[in-house]
# Entry
Amino acid sequence: EPTVRTELMEQIPPIAIFLQESRPKFPAAFFEYLMPIVVRYLTDVNNQVRKAGQEALLILLEQDLVAQSDIENKVCPILLDLSAPDSDDDYKVEAVNIICKMASMLSRTTVEHMLLPRFCELCSDGKLFQVRKICAANFGDICNAVGQEATERLLIPKFFELCSDSVWGMRKACAECFMAVSYTTSPEVRRSKLSPLFINLISDTCRWVRQAAFQSLGPFISTFANPSSAGLYIREDGTLSIRPSAQDVNSNSFQPSNNVTVMSSSDNAA
# Structure
């Protein structure tokens, strides 16, 4: 029964946490018995079971319960198979979604060598606009996961494609994550490539794209600021913050400043 498998998946994370805390008594139980079940259920015929398996996997990754070898030898290969060009549409959409979500939880080397090439392919998927939409919505997170060099070499050309996509929802998603993409690039790329691209979005024929671009204008401009002189910097959680001046720190009267929340690509994807 699918409901039984779904309920089973929901119990996997707490069982895994228990096993981690009792590892001297159960040294290999999770890796030998539970992890194979999670991987297998990612390809279950029932949609709810697959969804439960995906949620369980993300929790396990977030809690750092999955060994690096299992990530590279078991999880990534199955996601690459599910996101292949000839894969079933539903499986492909689910696979690209989980690839984007897990990118921030994996090492930069794993993301760049195992997942980034497939992500770049999916950005140009001509069959399913839903796949391209997920890529566009999570583009900033992928850039942050792989860093400046890979972003400028591999991802920026794909970002240009998505910003010119014929589907206006794609261009809107790009406008919404523009700050996160810009923050990962060098000042020269920001000035020479991203600025003209942003002007195109802010002049787009679709008013929803223009509105999203105008909402991202301030955050995008903030990425040009020199933190040492402007006092502005981007936290790892995607918030724009104000760094206190030396005078304020020395006066001992400094009160923590409020953070200006900037929507990240993952927020907009929801």
In short: Residues 2-21 form the longest helix (20 residues). Residues 1-66 form one domain. The CA atoms of residues 72 and 110 lie 7 Å apart.
